[in-house]
Amino acid sequence: MSRLLFSPIRVGTLTLPSRIAMAPLTRNRAPGAVPNALMAEYYAQRADPARGAALIISEGTAISPQGQGYADVPGLYDSTQLDGWKQVTRAVHAAGGRMFCQLWHVGRVSHHLLQPGNADPVAPSAIRANTRTYLVDGEGQGGFTPTSEPRALQRDEIPAIVHDFAVAARSAVESAGFDGVEVHGANGYLPDQFLKSGANQRSDDYGGSIANRARFMLEVVRAVVDAVGGARTGLRISPVTPANDIHDADPQPLFEYLMRELAPLGLAYIHVIEGATGGPREVEGRPFDYAAMKTAYREAGGQGAWIVNNGYDGALAHEAVESGRADLVAFGKPFIANPDLAARLRRGAALAVPERATMYGGGAHGYIDYPALDD
Ligand code: 8OZ
Asked: What is the crossing angle of helices 210-228 and 251-262, to 10°?
């Protein structure tokens, strides 16, 4: 039986052979923030759409030194990093794949030891996130540690950060060989910090009302669209995730407003984390109507692909695309241990379970040594 999950779909300028995307996954394998041959092999293993992902979304990639919040995360703000990414995208394209780069500024989810000049991390407001970041000590041992106290951005510092997103987007597409970029608007990082009332207590035009709190994210997305085109731009959001200590008092009207503003931009896709990132699909005390958010986008003329993510297995993925609830499904953790995830879903084969100890940091083990069924 041929099923919709394995049928082609247009995403921006690309025609993807299936509806299976690889979600962005932080793996902390880029010492010095420079992408390397090991990463090229890892992504290439998952890039053949017949067996793996029709679209790979890269791990979160820092748009600037200030945007860094975790050790050994890649960047794309200098030429060494862009050259590093070039070998990754070349390997992915050689395997028949397509790849977007996730543009990331962590905001307050950082540590002064990871910041230029050991400065305090920046945020909409000086409110520390009760969460952890990943540091590597002098002996090369990695571990999670509480975030530092952030400082509130001055209003006149904001345009430079928006500009950093646009420059990174152009570099990703024009120099590093990516097929497009995804703005990381989810999981309690900088754009999400501006968006949500729990992290934004500003009294200027970037805080308070829905329109003001959405301003930063919309400025970033518009700047990226101006840089690389809407057809090469996606946005990832997480309306109710508690990740990184983020919350909003009333997310439904906030995200429906965001959708109406995004609709005219011609984006390639909207990528929605449903529920708690990497956890339950329903978050206690945080109900959310995803269908109503999607309707707000479509009724305002938004035509981007609708990508859903979080906790999907084969059955739920088939349900999502066959019901029309989603156009694509992004799988995160399943892609760690199943480089041939699409082949396994097609056969209804069992999925391998990833090893926790090697998810964040380490070398080849737990990274490129998960076999495909046919190996
Ligand atoms: C897990 C560990 C570190 C970072 C996210 C980029 O949540 C991340 C991330 C996830 O979006």
From this structure: 30
- Residue 292: CATH number of its domain: 3.20.20.70
CA distance 106 to 132: 12
- Quote the pTM value: 0.98
Question: 264 lies in a domain?
Answer: yes
User: Average model confidence (pLDDT) for the chain?
Assistant: 97
Which atom of ligand 1 has the smallest separation from the CA of 243? 7
Ligand 1 pocket, 361 CB below 6 A? no
Are residues 371 and 351 in contact, defined by beta-carbon separation less than 8 angstroms?
no
Instruction: Tell whether ligand 1 has an atom less than 6 A from the beta carbon of residue 68.
Output: no
Q: What is the C-alpha R_g of the chain? A: 19
State how many domains the chain has.
1
Range of 63's domain? 4-358
Cβ(187) to ligand 1 under 6 A? yes
Residue 368: inside a domain, yes or no?
Answer: no
User: Which residue do the tokens 């206690």 mark?
Assistant: 284
Q: What confidence category does residue 139 fall into, taking pLDDT thresholds of 50, 70 and 90?
A: confident
Helices and strands, counts by H and E, the chain? 10, 14
